[in-house]
Amino acid sequence: MKLNTPRWWYDRERRHAPVTRMLLKPASWLWAAATARRLARATPVDPGVPVISIGNLTVGGSGKTPVAREVLRLLRAAGVEAHALSRGYGGSLPGPVRVDPAVHAAAEVGDEPLMLALDSPAWIARDRVAGARAAVAAGARALVLDDAHQNPALGKTLSLVVVDGETRNDEWPFGDGSVFPSGPMREPLKAGLARADAVVVLLPADAPDADPELIEVFGDLPVFVARLLPAAPPPAGPLVGFAGIAKPWKVERSLKAAGADLKDFAPFPDHAAFREADLRFLADRADRFGAQLITTEKDWSRLPPEWRERVVSWPVRATFEDEAGFAALLRSAVPLHRRSGGPPPPAGEE
Q1: d(CA 163, CA 173)
Q2: Cα(299)–Cα(153) distance, rounded to whole angstroms?
Q3: Is the CA virtual torsion 229, 230, 233, 234 positive or negative?
Q4: CB–CB of 54/156 below 8 Å?
Q5: Share of the chain above pLDDT 90, in %
Q6: CA angle at residue 70 from 137 to 304, to 5 degrees?
């Protein structure tokens, strides 16, 4: 059974759940040690094309997938045949499989690959090397790995770490720095940043500028600020929202900031498989308020087909403040990789 993300994970001062934190510490040490050992023992494989990794340092909620989607868009706008590659978390197919939104369901390939496949070729494979080879054989000239900072199977040309920039109301993206399960970190902050080439700080649409104290954490690493902006305003009229992401409270906050007449909101665990009972409960709440149901694009993709007509999908996009500078960073990875032995691009892509 999946559990909701603890809000106290993101309390920087350790004021909440001190006993729980202490009891979970031994498991955190084991998790961190296992991650470090896996990374140290790996021999990354070069697939022959540039590999851009989009990852994070926490177990969820940073906005990796919207950033990966924007990276793919920018690369393809620059003439690079970029394909997404994901493990396909939550899906039943082992892959390699090219994702087709018209054919595949989230239960087969995962919700995040379905989102990526709306705009760009996307693959899922539990074996990242096999997935990379399949994508390259199908014409990929660059690979964008979704959620791969702690996966060392492929050699990476550019490693980007996405960080949730929300620091209002005493929130801190890394909590007190504890590793899962006593905190949100996948690995210690210093170790994760040491493998990064740049950081993307993702801010909500209504947040002020990035917190200078947060920017200082990243030292000399290049930092690019992006905002998670609605692709369209929420519909008029009363709404009942729900979300099954790592930080569902961010969706509730964003809907209100966008002017939604939000009457109620229901949080679910990350990647939740919505049961019929869950959906009937939500429909009853909407009926009580005379409201329309609304959720994220990611959650909408996991709904049964018969429910999608009854729920509004509210898409958001990652938009970079310095898009030109970020695009230049992405383009620089392609020629740098080719000099180390990758195949040349088709004519006209120099």
Answers
A1: 7
A2: 29
A3: negative
A4: no
A5: 71
A6: 80
